[in-house]
Amino acid sequence: RFLPFTDRRDLTMAPSVSYSHVHLYVDHLQSLPTYKKFEDVLNKFSEDCESNTTATLEHKIHHWNQLTGSDNKDKEFVAHQRDIVQQLLAGFNFRITGARYPGLRSD
Q1: pLDDT tens digits, residue range 62-93?
Q2: Of 102, 88, 97, nearest to 36 (Cα)?
Q3: What whole-number distance in Å separates Cα of residue 43 and Cα of residue 48?
Q4: Fewest beta carbons less than 10 Å away: which of 3, 43, 63, 106?
Q5: How far apart are CA 85 and CA 77, in angstroms?
Q6: Model pTM score
């Protein structure tokens, strides 16, 4: 759909969306240190890419594989049963600022 104003370059009237937090119910979560480590990898990769503006896509893929210790050459992408927390961290640049564990209460 088109935005409801005539001049597409004038984004001052465009609706904005912001989030303060996301609350999800999931069947399985990895440990908090695992997600924080993944955040560190994402931050390092982002910093390295920003400092090397001439890097090719192939170079960035190679660098990602070095940081993560993986080689995704032969892996087929699967859209289902993916870790939602990792997707939010990588896809939307979210960061974990708190955690609540079962059995612990704050009231």
Answers
A1: 888 888 888 766 678 787 888 999 998 988 88
A2: 97
A3: 9
A4: 106
A5: 18
A6: 0.66
Listed residue (41, 18, 23) closest to 89, CA to CA: 41
Find out whether 45 and 63 touch, Cβ atoms under 8 Å: yes
Q: Give the per-residue pLDDT at 11.
A: 61
Which residues have a Cβ under 8 Å from the Cβ of 32 and sit 6 or more positions away? 96, 99
Tokens of 23: 């609350």
DSSP classification of residue 27: S
For residue 71, what are its two tokens?
């080689």
Mean pLDDT of 28-57: 89
